[in-house]
Amino acid sequence: NAGVTQTPKFQVLKTGQSMTLQCAQDMNHEYMSWYRQDPGMGLRLIHYSVGAGITDQGEVPNGYNVSRSTTEDFPLRLLSAAPSQTSVYFCASSWTSGSSYEQYFGPGTRLTVT
Amino acid sequence: GQSLEQPSEVTAVEGAIVQINCTYQTSGFYGLSWYQQHDGGAPTFLSYNGLDGLEETGRFSSFLSRSDSYGYLLLQELQMKDSASYFCAVPKLTGGGNKLTFGTGTQLKVEL
After folding, report:
1. What residues in A contact B48, CB-CB < 8 Å?
2. B98 Cβ partners below 8 Å, 6+ apart?
3. Which residues of B touch A105 (CB under 8 A)?
4. Of A51, A59, A99, the CB nearest to B96
5. Mean pLDDT for each 10-residue chunk of chain A (114 residues)?
6. What is the CA radius of gyration of chain A?
């Protein structure tokens, strides 16, 4: 299993540009989520999905859109990039049941907005 | 809202024992998780405490006290490879998923 994969690994955008960060998992997890991590800080939840066709907002959703058309894929779209969105973005997935609530994280996308 | 507090940095020598504390304020508490993150890497799951007490996994142990809203991660026989950031996190169950709220992380430096 590849686990959780993310593309691209690095990206530089100019202010106002849009782009989509890709995330895929091959573990048949129902739950997927996107986090951002700013320097010296913990991860903050952007959006999450409990299954195909179902998404909801997390703690910091403004400026981002998501969709979930399949169980495997959960892309994150930046509508109009701003310097404040410079961050490392992590996608994660997990089962919706279980005793440990363990989440599996992808390797991250390092985004710089100039 | 939810908040988790951790020390920002801890330094210890190889072979020693170190404890990383986490205090939390949250509604709808289910338990406390711990994640490890090496520089430039992804967070990886270490442990979860759903009940009070100590959970042991090899050199790592995690403790929870619900009455004190407090937990800690204990690392024994420290190795250089344990140098990393450690995050406590609380899952919030929501309609089939679990949203994680993370602390700001503790950077552990292991020295010779």
Report:
1. 99-102
2. A31, A94, A96, A101, A103, B30, B91, B92
3. 42-44
4. A51
5. 94 97 95 92 92 92 97 97 97 80 94 97
6. 13
